[in-house]
């Protein structure tokens, strides 16, 4: 069984839900306190043992490449002023092994994953979506999925239970329980109506997928909006080999939603050693004023 060494991060979307901020700034670069969202995703991949990362970008995403590149002028200025802690942070970001490919046309998540075919070859790989950040200081969400893959040798979908009134916003898993937090997938329903949802177990932006998915993606016809859906290809894969859904542990934030983004910003700020205590005091003060 081949080790999970590579990951793909789709980052070509327009981010229209965060306009006007995303008119000139990639949504993946919007900061949670002072750290771009995509950096949290990259760090989760690295902390899960991933060695090479492919970012599928698109028009207007150059800022992502610049963020993970060296910055000689900035580095020289930080060195000159003796700000060695900030210098180390900037240099560390530039040393991450990240590769890029452009998704020419916005044809959905399935097409974005298909862009990674040559990079992945015949290896199983991880997928991390930038709209979901998961906080778990003990074990990253992706590492949890990789652990399941190493036991089963099969594709694994990262899932969590969502409220009944939220099932229409996600891909929902149908299947049978085969262990603690583990379900063998028999079907997937994309954004079902509440009364048609087979469960409340939603796929939430983390995957480990076997390379057979690429042939199936090539066969997948565009669906609604002319997009190639990853869910459709995964359903076909489930007919050929086992796929599992794992209810991963961690506090998940929906960064595709403005409220979720604000929740992440506040909670990550409260966890910070440098500003957490002062920010907590501030929140208590304004809670009685607003």
Please give the structural blueprint.
Elements: E1 6-10, E2 31-32, E3 35-36, H1 37-47, E4 52-57, H2 62-67, H3 72-80, H4 84-94, E5 98-102, H5 109-114, H6 117-120, E6 125-128, E7 132-135, H7 141-152, E8 155-161, E9 171-179, E10 182-190, E11 201-209, H8 213-219, H9 230-240, E12 243-247, E13 251-254, H10 258-271, H11 276-287
Parallel strand pairs: 1-4, 1-6, 4-5, 8-12
Antiparallel strand pairs: 2-3, 6-11, 7-13, 8-11, 9-10, 10-12
Helix pairs in contact: 3-4, 8-9
- State the fourth-level CATH superfamily: Spore Coat Polysaccharide Biosynthesis Protein SpsA, Chain A
* Percent of residues in β-strands: 15-25%
Spell the H/E element sequence.
EEEHEHHHEHHEEHEEEEHHEEHH
How many structural domains?
1
Strand order in the sheet with the most strands: 5-4-1-6-11-8-12-10-9
How large is the count of helical segments?
11
**Count of strand segments:** 13
Can you tell me the residue ranges where pLDDT is under 50 for at least 5 consecutive residues? Answer: none
Distance between the termini: 57 Å
**Envelope shape:** globular
Percent range of helical residues: 25-40%
Describe the structure.
The chain has helices at 37-47, 62-67, 72-80, 84-94, 109-114, 117-120, 141-152, 213-219, 230-240, 258-271, 276-287; strands at 6-10, 31-32, 35-36, 52-57, 98-102, 125-128, 132-135, 155-161, 171-179, 182-190, 201-209, 243-247, 251-254. The protein is an alpha/beta fold. The chain has a single domain (6-256), classed as Spore Coat Polysaccharide Biosynthesis Protein SpsA, Chain A (Alpha-Beta Complex). The longest helix has 14 residues, at 258-271. It is globular, with a radius of gyration of 20 Å.
């Amino acid at each position: 069984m081949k080790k999970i060494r590579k990951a793909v991060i789709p980052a070509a979307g327009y981010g229209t839900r965060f306009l006007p901020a995303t008119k000139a700034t990639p949504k993946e670069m919007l900061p949670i306190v002072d750290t771009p969202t995509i950096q949290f995703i990259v760090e989760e991949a690295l902390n899960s043992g991933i060695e090479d990362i492919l970012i599928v970008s698109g028009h207007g995403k150059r800022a992502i490449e610049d963020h993970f590149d060296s910055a000689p002028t900035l580095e020289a200025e930080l060195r000159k002023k003796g700000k060695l802690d900030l210098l180390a942070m900037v240099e560390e970001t530039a040393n991450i092994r990240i590769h890029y490919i452009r998704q020419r046309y916005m044809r959905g998540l399935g097409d974005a994953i298909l862009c990674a075919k040559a990079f992945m070859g015949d290896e199983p790989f991880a997928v991390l979506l930038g709209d979901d950040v998961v906080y778990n200081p003990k074990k990253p969400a992706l590492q949890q999925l990789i652990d399941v893959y190493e036991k089963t040798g099969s594709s694994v979908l990262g899932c969590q239970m969502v409220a009944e009134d939220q099932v229409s916003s996600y891909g929902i898993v149908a299947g049978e329980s085969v262990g603690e937090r583990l379900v063998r997938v028999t079907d997937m329903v994309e954004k079902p109506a509440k009364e048609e949802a087979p469960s409340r177990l939603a796929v939430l932006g983390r995957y480990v997928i076997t390379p057979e998915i690429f042939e199936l993606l090539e066969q997948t016809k565009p669906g609604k909006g002319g997009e190639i859906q990853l869910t459709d290809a995964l359903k076909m894969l489930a007919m050929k080999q086992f796929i599992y859904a794992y209810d991963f542990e961690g506090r998940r934030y929906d960064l595709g939603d403005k409220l979720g983004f604000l929740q992440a910003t506040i909670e990550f700020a409260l966890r910070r050693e440098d500003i957490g205590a002062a920010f907590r005091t501030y929140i208590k003060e304004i809670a009685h004023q607003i």
